[in-house]
Amino acid sequence: MIIVLKNNKTESEVASFKSYLEQKYGVGIHVSVGHDSVVLGLIGDTSAVDEDSVRAQDIVQEVKRVQEPYKKANRKFHPDDTVITLANGLTIGSGSLTLIAGPCSVESEEQVIEVAEAVKSVGAAVLRGGAFKPRTSPYAFQGMGADGLALLKKARTKTGLPIISEVMSASQLELFAEVDIIQVGARNMQNFELLKELGKQSRPIMLKRGLSSTIEELLMSAEYIMASGNEQIILCERGIRTFETKTRNTLDISAIPILKRLSHLPVFIDPSHASGLPWLVEPLSMAAVAAGADGLIIEVHNNPAKALCDGAQSLTPEMFASTVKNIKKIAEAMGKK
Amino acid sequence: MIIVLKNNKTESEVASFKSYLEQKYGVGIHVSVGHDSVVLGLIGDTSAVDEDSVRAQDIVQEVKRVQEPYKKANRKFHPDDTVITLANGLTIGSGSLTLIAGPCSVESEEQVIEVAEAVKSVGAAVLRGGAFKPRTSPYAFQGMGADGLALLKKARTKTGLPIISEVMSASQLELFAEVDIIQVGARNMQNFELLKELGKQSRPIMLKRGLSSTIEELLMSAEYIMASGNEQIILCERGIRTFETKTRNTLDISAIPILKRLSHLPVFIDPSHASGLPWLVEPLSMAAVAAGADGLIIEVHNNPAKALCDGAQSLTPEMFASTVKNIKKIAEAMGKK
Amino acid sequence: MIIVLKNNKTESEVASFKSYLEQKYGVGIHVSVGHDSVVLGLIGDTSAVDEDSVRAQDIVQEVKRVQEPYKKANRKFHPDDTVITLANGLTIGSGSLTLIAGPCSVESEEQVIEVAEAVKSVGAAVLRGGAFKPRTSPYAFQGMGADGLALLKKARTKTGLPIISEVMSASQLELFAEVDIIQVGARNMQNFELLKELGKQSRPIMLKRGLSSTIEELLMSAEYIMASGNEQIILCERGIRTFETKTRNTLDISAIPILKRLSHLPVFIDPSHASGLPWLVEPLSMAAVAAGADGLIIEVHNNPAKALCDGAQSLTPEMFASTVKNIKKIAEAMGKK
Amino acid sequence: MIIVLKNNKTESEVASFKSYLEQKYGVGIHVSVGHDSVVLGLIGDTSAVDEDSVRAQDIVQEVKRVQEPYKKANRKFHPDDTVITLANGLTIGSGSLTLIAGPCSVESEEQVIEVAEAVKSVGAAVLRGGAFKPRTSPYAFQGMGADGLALLKKARTKTGLPIISEVMSASQLELFAEVDIIQVGARNMQNFELLKELGKQSRPIMLKRGLSSTIEELLMSAEYIMASGNEQIILCERGIRTFETKTRNTLDISAIPILKRLSHLPVFIDPSHASGLPWLVEPLSMAAVAAGADGLIIEVHNNPAKALCDGAQSLTPEMFASTVKNIKKIAEAMGKK
User: Fold this and answer.
1) Sign of the torsion angle spanned by Cα atoms D8, D12, D16, D18
2) Which residues numbered 9-48 in B keep a CB inside 8 Å of some CB on C?
């Protein structure tokens, strides 16, 4: 971290500020006196140094972090890609493209099994399904809860597909004991108490980027889970909030190559939530694969118009089959799968 | 809710869609056949109707919600201002201006009592102090936890000031049993499981707006708490995320008159987090009062430069005293206090 | 356009408002009286009706535009793709992928010819080069002006590549008489006086999306040019402004399929300005092609580190050659070129 | 400017980069070799150094500008407030609050004179009125043009109020010869060719902030005008584009104290365009004055419902009179006027 001091400060003010930083953060400091400014270079582990707090000191002109504040999620300290292996042997992040598909919310045994079989038949490797649903309105359908998780497990038994579902609080974690991948939704990306608990789990976590979270904040939230002991994390970009209103969110396609460069964790895209429109799922999926995504998570419903939740963006099994065909063309061009 | 259908649909398609909506949402529907479009007017309680889901139906051209999706938080159904009364008789939202002040995080008995006495002496009516701190980095100071709450209570005994502190998960609620106002931070505004639990509490809740949450989403989160039984809510605008980088967030000053018009709940402003800069606290506080805020929550630290957390934006007791003097001029011009 | 009136209005208020609208905008109006609201359906050409102005009337509850406000740019009224043919016979928007490449700004004859030959040899079909440069700072290099245009023409003579360059005001248009495609920069997307003048030109226009312009505003700006007589327009997405700071702008990849659906005009992507980072140009280009772009405009400089302007995001000719190779793989998978 | 180099670079690479910078930008450079990084401190005038361009060099890890890139607009080099004096002796920015009011667009002699007299009678000091209107749609009313300017001048003769109107291109400037203040609209804030021409004018310019322009970009646009010779500039914040949809734009109230601190130029607020809603004009005006604004520019129409343009946000003369009364209370509390 580089700290530029204001240019009207006395030597003793500089010395006093230097020793304050050394004591507060346990860092070494290299002072460099320039023509009209003094620059402090912090040496050692600066991840606990609060940039805003330093900037607020009266003596400080500017602060610039040189090292990323995340360590375990950082590719610098872990150059090889993280590969996640599920119970059935499926690997994620190993160079192939992983398709996750299924209904927004689990609604009935027939529904989830019908969708599971349909998506499996065209190449999906994991079944998604919401049991606990984060809804903006308290009056909207909140999901089937534990019963939904039970139906997902039935679908797993029937089809062999591993399952992924979203957890909304630490108190629900017990119910997720047999879920293959635990999903953290965008609205909980900075629910730090939940992240700490997920760090104690031994199952992979899919961490979705918050609606207005920066790429660095996403990596810091991954760091929370990793710092608590669980390093099996899948990052998922699902659209960010901007001024554009044609789509529900704006898919930040650049996040894929940036996350792959900064981190070693697998990167997925959720084109369904990013767009909120079924006809956009195919082109966004193709773009995501061309940009280097390790996988996609797509909503598929056997009857989108009647879906209890967010049918808006779900594909029919037929649309999904046709989309997968086009995704595969890009994946092959990329040398994947 | 008004639904405009595409203009190439047959009568039987329209009829089938109408009966689907009636059954799914239990609403009445008025069909109006125009020159080149059919418009459905939904009658009754449409708060459970998912706008995006309806928009996704193939038959639908456009959807427009006419009624707000929130009810208990809606001024239409509750024209009088909600006034919150604390244990010591202090009223919030009754036409006076309430000042809440205190350190970002509780650090020691001396610190919190010194600050409490200082802010009380110039007019603060409630003491704020963080015990559990939501930090972007897992390596940053996470707060004193239960010990911090104990010190806040000591300060209350000493000064008589009611206390407010932030809760980060439902499992911590037990520890907040004697806290006068429970704060929900911006990052937890859509932690729906937490909101439901807060609905079962009998103490007032200060609900902070999320960094990228719309005003309507803030009111829907208030509705979550109210729908679960707790109607004592203070709304707090604390800056939203925009492209501007001079301030940490952009204070949405318009939110004050808009929230006061749409809802009956008291509206506070947090100028410290909105700006992230101590010298901006005074002008933003004055603007907030002039725009009609019911109160302010301001960070004050006896030694901002040495604060363990976010000293960046804290005022010294001296700066706070001077700021309060200027705030009072505006409050008087507004006929407050 | 659908106008929902407030539900406490008298019949004569409704009648008076109806006749006011009919007279002001020359539209027909269908009144539909619902259970607790009156809905007006405007019939005819509503493109001149100002939505905000209507919404501001005291009698109005909500307004919803059903028809797009653009006509000539609208695919509904022009279902076939617009194909643009340059003087040398090159077609744009006809199903093939068009690569435009060249330096950010023209700096010397050697530079522009060296780059032109390099990009032509690996597949670029048009040469780009800035002569008039929009710079945030008045102290930054403002481009070579007319001399720069002369050098571009020399490069065209030498290589046979058509040329594109950015115009910054109507008074410069005379100098652009022999430029094959005239570019309008993002900052001038709503310079309406310039747009009107461009409508009188007989050459194709590349219209770049403004940093914070919606997709609809981009189409309305295209409409300005088309309404003045010039229908040869290429739309170009070049990144929008969001809160994310890792990239200079956020490439809105969804804009490609949306613009292709709403309009018949060709859609290009500028991955250089969207990212501001040379290593992001390749993955963003590949994503753009996979999402259906008709072409790309890429900055290439023979010595990016010494570029007088924005070298930051320029590729070397070698990087460009390697990028084109990967772009072609995706283009082939898409059945293009 | 501080440039941090990557830590794996050789001495000769550093030396070569140093001499490249010295030659390209004519700056002095102080090299400071730290524990694990080399930091270059640029000395002298760095306003022409392109930060992005430097960041793009392979050798560079990070760049941080220490000095603001604007000079003439910078309070550091011009500590005293700029006071603008109009022909009639009215001073702007001298500690009093200046009210500018009038119709969005000039529509008729009766209209503009009626409004002018009404706003003058309650305290407006300048008359605003649009003659050339920037409209998103080519089919919307584009203003009366030269005839509109003539009517404004008639109103000036009748009432004695100086006039302000918006120019949309340099070719219109001749028509503005007798206009007291020339306004640059938000969409033209970065129309650099226009800014350069305005620098040659001898009349004050009101420069409005672009919808997605940063505060620094606003100051850089002011710098364009000042660098060309005209230092009489009024800055105007009129709302920025964010994700919030309740208001047309989000008024960035913090911009007032920030601009006043960074620059010596007067700062105005346009509450009409910032909100797009007439009932928000009063609270936003009061907030702006409390935050330190030097003036307000407010839309007033004698018949908002019938306005040819943007009636949506206009006040009636009665509403304006009542708003001024409340604004004055705040101005008095602030010791203004």
Assistant:
1) positive
2) 28, 30, 32, 34-37, 39, 41, 43
